[in-house]
């Protein structure tokens, strides 16, 4: 029988078992029936004097004796084959010129198998997990077999075929163990990675041997092995199997409410745990060219993506949809891939998004549409509740001594809550715009409701308006906080809506005050005014301001400021009606001090009550100066100064003001107006304000 070259044992019908600890050296055996010699390369080298043993001298005599003792006929050179055998010789494979010597490439890995104290057989190496060494033994046998096939053309066909079959079978045995080691790489204990290290070394060796055989036209039936290709396919199947085989974690099952959430969570946890295993342990078993961390990352990324895409195509409950989007945009890219150990070893950017645009876009649209409708319903219900409280009659709640409404707080909290959820789902604020834009729709409804309520005759209108002015102020502040989330054009429209509501509410109070002060306004610039001033007007103004004590301080100050503007406009309006004509210098000198005194008293009242319109205190003194001046040139200059300070001063206002000075001729007035027209283009004062547009003039005297 043939020598089992890989195992290093001689099998025969009448062999004597060698002692267990003896060094088993392969020898050449003569097949007496076939008259051919089957030679092992190790044996050839041994008989040629080329072989030395590990720690043993070459003992030709002992080995020959052992060989004869086993019944083998030894010949120093093979007999010449007969013609018949030569005809039956198998067609020779042309092989590359293998070098005798180191027969396998060194694996480019950090650690290689340490040489054993005694040479083990192929079977023993496989059993002990020394797959790299076993692979080198098979490569050596392969090289010897086909090198001999070229040198010994008379080799017996059947014996050679048997050796090839045995070698092919041993390759299959080896690769089974290699693939088992690869398949167990993610489930192996921390100390069980040596088998994987040896398996990877074997793959590297086999890839190199495949490369050497590519140089010839014909190769053994087992070449190319394509171990790297098989390895990559095995990793893909392994990853898919592990992602399909995730078991529900008990702790996760308690926290997550649906089976879909548990399934997605477990897949994500499995991906992270396995990738950490790769980085911590598996990576050290591979050479750098395998790029094993990124290889596993791509496989898990694709496997996770495929499974989520399949889930996404099913009918999802909204809560499941939200959870799925959280994994796509938040948990996976940030909690899984951004793990400090994974981030250093994996090119996360190269992985791309977890789901393709075609899959994730419908999910986004469904989420945002649902959230928009949800917010719309919430704010509509809040407004309906507020309207019901207005109509029911009771006064709004008093907080810190001022009326207060919850409408702004409720709506802002609803929108902010939806924005926070959307930001958490998508891991950024960019998709919150559609939710924030619901504020404009709400404010349009809010404005309409408030205006309709003001048209009624409810006894609580004042209190309701005072409370809602607080809400309007809160809305205005919050629009600023939205920043870029609210597009500028929508931000402008929202501000405009709020300002309209604010003006409407303040105008309601001012109209009531104007109506009450009308009688006092009529006393201005009358003969009685020249002697008594504005004492009664001042007292009534103070009374109206005190009635606003249940308004929030900021709103109260705003109302006082607007009342300040209204009172000064009414004062100037009554003046320009010309009920009192300052016919001579004496009357003018009497009216000017009274005018300045009124200005001082009124400004003291409004300043003490918090009016911020300090610019109003300059109007009456400027008008008084026009009334005081007698020199035409000085008067022209003062009128020009007044016009530059208040650009809305019209010709009608100037005519009405100058006609109070009856000692001016029409030609004087005409010259003053012409002078003003010529100087209108001068640079307007930086502190210029609009005031006279609030003073309507119906007086139509024609100046020739």
TrEMBL record:
Pfam families: Sec6. InterPro entries: EXOC3/Sec6 (IPR010326), EXOC3/Sec6_C (IPR042532). Signal peptide: none annotated. Residues 1-21, 71-91, 99-118 are annotated as: Disordered. Residues 9-20 have a biased composition (Polar residues). It comes from the Eukaryota. One of its GO terms (cellular component) is exocyst. One of its GO terms (biological process) is exocyst localization. One of its GO terms (molecular function) is SNARE binding. Belongs to the SEC6 family. This is Tumor necrosis factor alpha-induced protein 2. It comes from Aldrovandia affinis.
